[in-house]
Amino acid sequence: MPNALLHETSPYLLQHAHNPVEWLPWGDAAFERARAEDKMIFLSVGYSTCHWCHVMERESFENDDVASVMNHHFINVKVDREERPDVDAAYMAFVQATTGQGGWPMSVWITPEGKPVFGGTYFPPGDRYGRPGFVRVLHELARVWRDDRRRLEESADKVV
Prior knowledge:
Strand order of the largest sheet: 1-3-2-4-5
Mean pLDDT: 95
Oligomer: single chain
CATH architecture: 3-Layer(aba) Sandwich
Number of domains: 1
Low-confidence stretches: none
Structural class: alpha/beta
CATH superfamily: Glutaredoxin
């Protein structure tokens, strides 16, 4: 079943329109839903010819089990960096400042107010390449949002 990206014009967003992830485009509706459902936003930024974007899609975003975790715990937003260079630049600055590197896909977890709390680039589905697995990161951030939200919000306030 297609998600909300089906009505977008970006080739990159349309590539994700049939993922089991309930992707939303960047906009007020995504932030309103995050506030209403009291969830963080998982922001994924990429572009249509990005190799690692396609790898992460194949490994994680097309996986029903991973999508289920994403859909349960987060409001998922997909951005084409070529359509929204402003969004890309703002969150890339955070990723580079906090990890010392940047690239695409860019993966950032943000509060319903748009403040970044954790980010990176490509995450493999399980722990490998010296990187934490995407599913482990999803579960841990959902746990901290539920059990120690103040710590995340204070961290976000220091960065912004």
